[in-house]
């Protein structure tokens, strides 16, 4: 029987030989996830000999990663903003850059709660529900409506709301953008598809072959979703409300122009962990 340390080393070496970007990290997260260990447990239990079924499970997962399936797709879940989220075929993986969006939404929600005693958000194209669930978990006086065009995504989002203890404040509706939305909200938030259609074929196989195309494809110029949101946002935004959006690294000026034309004022923008433009926030056109 091989030890945990030996199995980890074999996986890391195989990933390096295959040219994967972060072989050691991939091996560490994959092996620990398959065996149900913390990363510290990987260190402290390195000398433990694995059972045959454990070796087989790790070997099967390594084979999938060598075929360019992402680590967290293999594990079926990923951490986001300190919470655990299940994944499904209809959802993107929630990624660290999107945590920037949550971080800068929270102060606006807190101010809405201070004004009104509570806050309402609508998360358009919710996917796993990661954005809405993270906001609810960190702002107890908030309720969320989450929309998506994929019923599978909404099922996953509802499960994630339940897992993270916010299901009583989380409602889903199926439909594109505002088609299933009624009422006004203190915050409209979205991480919409923003990749130019022609670029999708050039993406890494981890993204191109495993992320749902509907969650990636932003149309001929990558901006279709922003136009759709801007066109209807004013009918669903409460007084003093804001629209908070994730954007592609080169889209800040174009998205800002779309929302200015619709009557909104940019109030904040933020960069991601790599220094790229990633979040824009617009103020309501309606003032108190």
UniProtKB/TrEMBL annotation:
Transmembrane segments: none annotated. It holds the Pfam family PrmA. Coiled coil: none annotated. Keywords: Methyltransferase, S-adenosyl-L-methionine, Transferase. Methylates the class 1 translation termination release factors RF1/PrfA and RF2/PrfB on the glutamine residue of the universally conserved GGQ motif. The keyword 4Fe-4S does not apply. This is Release factor glutamine methyltransferase. HAMAP family: RF_methyltr_PrmC. The keyword Glycosyltransferase does not apply. It catalyses: L-glutaminyl-[peptide chain release factor] + S-adenosyl-L-methionine = N(5)-methyl-L-glutaminyl-[peptide chain release factor] + S-adenosyl-L-homocysteine + H(+). GO terms for molecular function: peptide chain release factor N(5)-glutamine methyltransferase activity. One of its GO terms (biological process) is methylation. Its EC number is 2.1.1.297. NCBIfam families: hemK_fam, RF_mod_PrmC. Signal peptide: none annotated. S-adenosyl-L-methionine binds at residues 125-129, 148, 177, 191. Belongs to the protein N5-glutamine methyltransferase family. PrmC subfamily. Substrate binds at residues 191-194. It comes from Martelella mangrovi. Residues 8-76 form the Release factor glutamine methyltransferase N-terminal domain.
């Amino acid at each position: 029987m091989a030890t945990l340390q030996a199995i980890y080393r074999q996986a890391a070496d195989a990933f390096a030989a295959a040219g994967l970007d972060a072989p050691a990290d991939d091996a560490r997260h994959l092996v620990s996830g398959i065996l149900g260990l913390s990363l510290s447990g990987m260190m402290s239990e390195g000398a433990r000999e694995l059972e045959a079924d454990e070796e087989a499970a790790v070997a099967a997962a390594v084979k999938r990663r060598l075929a360019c399936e992402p680590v967290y797709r293999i594990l079926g879940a990923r951490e986001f903003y300190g919470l655990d989220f299940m994944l499904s075929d209809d959802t993107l993986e929630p990624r660290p850059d999107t945590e920037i969006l949550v971080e800068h939404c929270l102060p606006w929600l807190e101010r809405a709660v201070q004004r009104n005693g509570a806050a309402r958000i609508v998360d358009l194209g919710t996917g796993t529900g990661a954005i809405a669930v993270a906001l609810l978990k960190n702002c107890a006086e908030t309720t969320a409506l989450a929309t998506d065009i994929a019923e599978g995504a909404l099922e996953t989002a509802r499960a994630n709301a339940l897992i993270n203890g916010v299901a009583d404040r989380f409602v889903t509706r199926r439909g594109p953008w505002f088609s299933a939305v009624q009422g006004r909200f203190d915050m409209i938030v979205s991480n919409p598809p923003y990749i130019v259609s022609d670029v999708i074929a050039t993406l890494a196989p981890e993204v191109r072959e495993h992320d749902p195309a509907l969650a990636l494809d932003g149309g001929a110029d990558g901006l279709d979703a922003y136009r759709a949101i801007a066109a209807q946002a004013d009918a669903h935004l409460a007084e003093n409300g804001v629209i908070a959006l994730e954007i592609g690294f080169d889209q800040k000026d174009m998205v800002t122009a779309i929302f200015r034309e619709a009557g909104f004022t940019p109030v904040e923008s933020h960069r991601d962990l790599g220094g790229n433009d990633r979040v824009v926030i617009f103020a309501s056109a309606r003032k108190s």
